[in-house]
């Protein structure tokens, strides 16, 4: 849907560094096959851009353990197991994660694989069972890696609470509340209060950091509202390809600069990478294996 999406390692590196320079404290990274843009879990592709990013910025590097509904769990974890990063994303449950309605709106496709991939999501499940999550938490605890807990619905907060009660997750933890993905909670503004209140009730506000991700056209309004409710923000081309109505974002950094401008106008301060590490209790860049 956007010619500005970074695909090659060089493009991902350049956009990540620009986003960090614009003020992003955490860089949430996926990899793509440079030949056709297909999502890939291959460590050799990650190695073509992650070490370079780490050398050129002190932003926290966050490696996805999501990747794709088409990947096995071992594939999704392959690079994170090698890199032992400060932070990984972790989807807190299995779900009918789908973008298939987008296919009905598309009139042309950039690559041959895309149409079948997007349409096929209607019959695909993103799998993260309780055992999957337990195994990931147990394995990465030994590496000192902490998580961006992606919660796509209220039930995911209760799944998170289950693992907190089991002693596998210690505060302060980082909840990324995701709104507007088909299969998860909708992007209605009222749902921000629902998720925030549930998290407060389950964990106590002093034990977690709340963040907001709004998909598509909901990105900027929802994350702005979430900040007013005491949350942090995540923006980027993974979640929305637009900067404003009908205007495509030419980079992830454009979205970072826009939300930074909005929040600073509202008298909020933008955390540095060092401040983010302190807030989230991260192990530090010197303890990773990029």
From TrEMBL:
It comes from the Bacteria. Keywords: Acyltransferase, Metal-binding, Transferase, Zinc. Its EC number is 2.3.1.247. GO terms for molecular function: acyltransferase activity. The keyword Glycosyltransferase does not apply. Gene3D superfamilies: Aldolase class I. Its cofactor is Zn(2+). InterPro entries: Aldolase_TIM, BKACE. The keyword S-adenosyl-L-methionine does not apply. This is 3-keto-5-aminohexanoate cleavage enzyme. It comes from Cupriavidus pinatubonensis.
């Amino acid at each position: 849907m956007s010619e500005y999406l970074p695909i090659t390692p060089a493009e991902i590196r350049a956009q990540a560094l620009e986003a960090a320079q614009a003020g992003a404290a955490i860089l949430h990274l996926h990899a793509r096959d440079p030949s056709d843009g297909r999502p890939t879990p291959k460590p050799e592709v990650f190695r073509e851009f992650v070490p370079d990013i780490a050398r050129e910025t002190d932003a926290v590097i966050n490696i996805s353990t999501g990747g794709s509904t088409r990947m096995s769990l071992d594939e999704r974890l392959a690079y994170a197991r090698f890199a032992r990063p400060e932070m990984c994303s972790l989807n807190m449950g299995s779900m009918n994660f789908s973008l298939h309605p987008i296919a009905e709106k598309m009139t042309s496709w950039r690559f041959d694989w895309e149409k079948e991939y997007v349409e096929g999501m209607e019959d695909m499940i993103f799998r993260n069972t309780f055992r999957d999550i337990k195994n990931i938490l147990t394995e990465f605890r030994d590496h000192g890696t902490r998580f961006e807990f992606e919660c796509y619905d209220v039930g995911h907060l209760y799944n998170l609470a289950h693992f907190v009660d089991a002693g596998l997750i210690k505060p302060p933890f980082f909840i990324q509340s995701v709104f507007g993905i088909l299969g998860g909670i909708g992007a209605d503004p009222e749902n921000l209060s629902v998720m925030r209140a549930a998290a407060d009730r389950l964990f106590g506000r002093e034990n977690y950091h709340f963040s907001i991700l709004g998909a598509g056209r909901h990105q900027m309004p929802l994350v702005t509202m979430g900040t007013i409710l005491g949350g942090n923000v995540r923006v980027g081309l993974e979640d929305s390809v637009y900067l404003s109505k009908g205007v495509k974002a030419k980079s992830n950094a454009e979205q970072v600069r826009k939300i930074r401008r909005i929040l600073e106008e509202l008298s909020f301060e933008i955390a540095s990478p060092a401040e983010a590490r302190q807030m989230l209790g991260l192990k530090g860049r010197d303890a990773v294996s990029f």
